[in-house]
Amino acid sequence: MKIGITCYPTYGGSGVIATELGKELALNGHEVHFISYALPFRLNHFIDNIYFHEVEMSNYPLFEFPLYSLALASKMVEVANYENLDLLHVHYAIPHAISGYLAKEIIKPKKDIKLVTTLHGTDITLVGLEPSFVHLVKFSIERSDGVTAVSRFLREKTLTNYHIEEDISVIPNFVDTTLFAPQDSSLKKRFAPNGEKILIHTSNFRVVKRVFDTIHIIDKVSKEIPAKLLLVGDGPDRSECERLCREMDLCDKVIFLGKQEALVDILNCGDLFLIPSQSESFGLAALEAMSCGLPVISSSVGGLPELVVHNENGFIAEIGDVDRMAKYSIDLLTNPRKYKLFSENARKRGVEKFDKQIVVPQYEKFYEAVLNS
Ligand code: GMT
Residue 176 C-alpha to ligand 1 middle, in angstroms? Predict the structure, then answer.
């Protein structure tokens, strides 16, 4: 198949999934054309069958606001025509699905190119519901030839919030379990020189991630056992989190690493992964941690309970219940037998349910069904 993929190329789970999917499809012999405003960050080495097409933006003075959606649609038409694409697969509905729809309509006289939209999270649960977008999101979902959501939760939310009657298939996120695997980490000595337990959180530090909760958790945990918290990533709440650490006198226990590429090494120096989000359609960061053998302490929101099995590979608590999350952390970190079992279960769940070899064929099958529809 000849597939055009559009995603956000910078940090973020939807871009990661789109890029890793494209890489796997290319390895399976498909021709993959990425269409975006920058090279996806995980596309960092040459891979046969993968091409990148950059969306060029006009800087005409009359356009006070960048017209990205239109420029993207135009590039999609160009690539689809020249490369004779079979389908366009867009990740994150806003604005990619509407650009895809526009491109599809423009190409229609020549070819019935198919449009597949994958819904990832806040495109449905937050931004998509804003009055400026709600009608466009509903319309573009209804006009896509195939729609997938990354969890059952997100599927249900989409159907009810947007009154959609068309079918939406659930294809979960996935991970390369041979890459994200348990291994010795060179960072263990650096961050836990005295055998401290390491709790990890990675995110884009937006309000929905509730990063402050992780600081309250480490405060409680470190009062019971020697422990530290590694915070990976950056975003709007970072400065306030740093301020909170100073205020709580936790600067020696909380380490802000900022954006990092060496995630596997960092995850492998950790003992537990914290994801106390207020909204999380799937939680790819937690899956990557589980694949490295880290049990997860999560909130009970969105798609997280489809990933984390309470009392098996982690614990789930109500949003904001930092007392309980701390209690669960201490319980696991002070019980080596239980910890080992949870760690093995976390890895097993990643390998058995969410490995790329299991999930990518689901996308290929989905494409075939859409192309034959
Ligand atoms: O919607 C967002 O917040 C960003 C989006 C992204 O592009 O990274 O994250 C969502 O998609 C990820 C990949 O499918 C999921 O793992 C995240 O759970 C989801 N984020 C939220 O639902 C908040």
Answer: 18
Total residues found in the chain within this entry: 373
Q: Say whether both 246 and 119 belong to one domain.
A: no
Which residue of 14, 21, 201, 287 sits with most ligand 1 atoms within 8 Å of its CB, as the best mutation to test the pocket?
A: 14
**Closest C-alpha to ligand 1, atom 7:** 14
229-268 residue pLDDT tens:
999 999 999 999 999 999 999 999 999 999 998 899 999 9
Q: Ligand 1 test: best mutation among 127, 281, 291, most atoms within 8 Å of CB?
A: 281
Q: Cα–chain-centroid distance for residue 211? A: 17
* Closest atom, ligand 1, to C-alpha of 11: 8
CATH number of the domain that 17 lies in? 3.40.50.2000
Q: Output the CA 113–ligand 1 centroid distance in Å.
A: 27
Cα 283 to averaged position of ligand 1 atoms, centre (Å) = 7
Boundaries of domain holding 57:
2-174+355-371
* 299 in the same domain as 273: yes
Residues 146 and 260 in one domain: no
Pocket of ligand 1 contains residue 180 by CB under 6 Å: no
Query: Tokens 């991630």 belong to which residue?
Result: 209
- pTM above threshold 0.90: yes
Q: What is the pLDDT of residues 78-105, one digit of tens each?
A: 999 999 999 999 999 999 999 999 999 9
Ligand 1 lined by 14 (C-beta under 6 Å): yes
Tokens of 347: 């890895």
Q: How confident is the model at residue 336 (pLDDT cuts 50, 70, 90)?
A: very high
3-state secondary structure of 289: helix
Residue 179 lies in a domain: no
User: How many domains does the chain fold into?
Assistant: 2
Number of alpha helices (DSSP H) and beta strands (DSSP E) in the chain: 15, 13
Query: Could you write out the DSSP letters of every residue in 1-28?
Result: -EEEEE---SSSHHHHHHHHHHHHHHHT
